[in-house]
Amino acid sequence: MSQHLPPPPFEKKIVSFEKLEEFVRKLPHPVVLTNGVFDILHRGHVTYLAQAASLGASLVVAVNSDESVRMLGKGPDRPINSENDRAAVLAALESTACVVIFKDKVPLEVVKKVRPDIYVKGGDYEISQLPEAEIVHSYGGKVVTVAFDYDRSTTKLLNKVRSK
């Protein structure tokens, strides 16, 4: 007979938007914030997240809701994994201190609640084109883009699978 075990501890790192500010207040600083879809987690993702985490003491990851992924135009069958599954996988990573799901295309409200010391995006973004950067700079925070060490993407993986 199968035994039911308690939920794994990483589940506690998944926080609702409503409880985000309170949760982040208790985290060691500097707090680093990043965001993305993180649909099919791959080496590029985990390397990027570990590098972002290395910039501070606590990494908060804002993950796009299923609805916001569709707003981004990633394709009619995206996301592959549900927002709750993507949040759980991200929370299980040792580099992650907190995961929150956001419903907009851009996590402006998350940035306002978290008020990260450092906001991080991938090297494919220009800081001047990020509306989030303006908010972070307004209170003296720092915005950093991180170069990708591995040329990986969920879209490329899906194209590879679909071509077989």
From TrEMBL:
Any one GO BP annotation for this protein: carbohydrate metabolic process
Keywords: ATP-binding, Carbohydrate metabolism, Nucleotide-binding, Nucleotidyltransferase, Transferase
Segments forming domain Cytidyltransferase-like: 33-140
EC number: 2.7.7.70
Gene Ontology molecular function, alphabetical: ATP binding; nucleotidyltransferase activity; phosphotransferase activity, alcohol group as acceptor
Entries under InterPro entries matching the protein: Archaeal_FAD_synthase, Cyt_trans-like, RfaE_dom_II, Rossmann-like_a/b/a_fold
Catalytic activity: D-glycero-beta-D-manno-heptose 1-phosphate + ATP + H(+) = ADP-D-glycero-beta-D-manno-heptose + diphosphate
Pfam families: CTP_transf_like (PF01467)
Name of the protein: D-glycero-beta-D-manno-heptose 1-phosphate adenylyltransferase
